[in-house]
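Dissemination and training. As part of the outreach component of the grant, students in the summer workshop were shown how a complex can be specified as a set of sequence lines and then modelled as a single object. The example used during the hands-on session is reproduced here so that future cohorts can follow it. Participants entered these lines:
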Amino acid sequence: MTPIPELIARKRDGGDLSAEEIDELILADVPDYQLAAFLMAVYFRGLSTRETFALTDAMVRSGETIDLHAALGRRVVDKHSTGGVGDKATLAVGPVVAACGVPFGKMSGRGLGHTGGTLDKLESIPGFRVELTTDEFVSQVRDIGIAVVGQTANLVPADKRLYGLRDVTATVDNVSLIAASIMSKKIASGADAIVLDVKVGDGAFMKSVADAEVLSEAMISLGRHAGRDVVCELTDMDQPLGRAVGNALEVREAVATLKGEGPDDLEALVVESCAHLLELSDLGVDLEEGRRRARAAIADGSAVEAYERWIHAQGGDPADGALPRAPFIREVFAGRDGFVHALPALPIGLAAVHLGAGRRTKDDPVDHAVGIVCRKKRGDAVEEGEVLAEIHARDEASAVEAATAVHDAYELGDDAPRAVPIVLETIGA
Amino acid sequence: MTPIPELIARKRDGGDLSAEEIDELILADVPDYQLAAFLMAVYFRGLSTRETFALTDAMVRSGETIDLHAALGRRVVDKHSTGGVGDKATLAVGPVVAACGVPFGKMSGRGLGHTGGTLDKLESIPGFRVELTTDEFVSQVRDIGIAVVGQTANLVPADKRLYGLRDVTATVDNVSLIAASIMSKKIASGADAIVLDVKVGDGAFMKSVADAEVLSEAMISLGRHAGRDVVCELTDMDQPLGRAVGNALEVREAVATLKGEGPDDLEALVVESCAHLLELSDLGVDLEEGRRRARAAIADGSAVEAYERWIHAQGGDPADGALPRAPFIREVFAGRDGFVHALPALPIGLAAVHLGAGRRTKDDPVDHAVGIVCRKKRGDAVEEGEVLAEIHARDEASAVEAATAVHDAYELGDDAPRAVPIVLETIGA
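and obtained this result:
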């Protein structure tokens, strides 16, 4: 065993570590302060492809792994988003895929900062249980065709530890560490094929398409190394996805999308993600047939039925009336005629957090009822006095504050801006 | 208060921190892992002069400070070495300066790795107490004119913490951090004027004169900022200082030097260091007069008398016969005629550690009797079969092992190498 300070010094000086040395750092009982120094050295020096493979592999081996393929005897698919504002796509993608007959098994996280978490959205459904045992998770994927649960405590514990450290030591922003964090969890939770929605824009971790491409290539390469098929969709996060931002509001919008009544961008993204998942499944269909089947599942009602089966299976009440509603709704009005030129995702996400829809720190409670509905989005024409957005708030004071922030976030101009597709680029298809 | 991760991120990105922000990092209760990440960011980005001032200042304020000037009503001098092999200069410099009538008060450290520590050398004297209270320290400097003690636990506790972290996170090697570590302790322990012996060579932390110059300028600047006079002597550590390496052996050589019977390089360094200290004192003498007085104190016996007073004052027995002696002495012989071309300090220091004279880890015990006496040094002529060195060992096996290492360390050649002075350069005089 090489002494840990020597491993840190080698990385600090731009050298490479072997797989055994990375195992030593990740799997032995190395103190936080040495890991923190190592992570900062990685921030400056990066990790080679081989080191990133070794890191991901060590992280996967740090805890329990689930072999869904063996448990179900067939290919299982998963979908993951790098996190954005108003991103409820998983809530619609899962049921559509399940309705098409492909098992969908996902372990999900909670939200922190301006991006929401799928678990928080699901918990706005009264009775819904996100904490299943691994056996319950596997059985539900087999019997119902879909399960979305919180990560079990022992799934990639090394990631929990590393991520916790990175978050407080300014070492989050490194592509190898991000890729290893995401992919170790995807690999350990057992799906054969994964569609990764890599958000790009002011409300996302990746601010540019170029950065998102680098991250995507790294994740595809890590997936391939572990024998998993990975497709990355780079999608627009320069404005919120869909119209709703806030947990129950987003569940409602996801259900509307499953009924064919969702916003265009969300519906387009859901269909595209489902098409990739179906293409990667054992159905033997191509992308175009995948799109057709996804649209058909929405049109014939089987997608919303799959949603209801899923929610029931996890103890929730899928009825719209069961979702909580905020006591105060305040509208935000346009101050002029024109077009929405921009509706940046970050201030909208922050305004939602301020209303109580998200967490500023890990232990904050979440108010599932509150949030924002963006009635106008980029490219929409507006008239002076028309409603731009609705604020759903717990009290009047916070509604007023959020209304100001949301009003300021809207950028109105004279001409229609150039249209931007929701899927900017697809890699690994 | 700025959140700590933001401060780390700013330094990581090459920005500057304010004095208040550095106070927050050093004086607030920041976890080790955040400090470790900060230190690695400093390793890559460095600290500005203002940041280094602020860091040193915060470190000084982290604990107790001693105002020797106020306690004695006159200027007090101190001397510090950055650490080398066979460096017993303090044991001779202190008594010479005291014999010249200038108060000498020094807080010293223990050895780690291949460099010895003054406290360990002093503890080879039976009965010698290195742990005085601050009051005892101050009284002894006033009454006896000299005291050398271990750092009190509460002197610059921030340095203990930072140094402990740097040691295990590969962040030792940064000039601002080194300068702040040394100078915070010198400033807190209260001397008005400090002579810093900056070792340069294979056995020293600084491998090149250029690096030592940068460190010296930084330390002089920190001293000036705190109102202290600082002179840096850059001295040769490409071979051990003097002949003796090992605690009791070094005490004996220091006493010989106080009697005018020491090795040339050690005597030259002691006289030069004392001359600078006398020049910086309140005696009002110039450097040449300082040299004259230092030589006179050695010649007239007052230096060795001051040594004996000092050792008695701290409970020790200054008689040569009181020092421990190793049971095994083995000689190392020259395999050819010629000249000693090189006698690198590092392998000699490591061989001494191996014999038990030093510590590999912080909690190792030290064997005060063992060590190495280099009878031949760089430039000396040797004949085949002549004794190069003596190994003083606890047992025969370790003597044999050390003899091989020491024999291999000697580089013999045909011609006399170019002479190198012990003091390579003086800065700040």
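Chain A has three domains: 4-46, 68-155+162-320, 325-413. Students were then asked to discuss how this feature might be tested experimentally.
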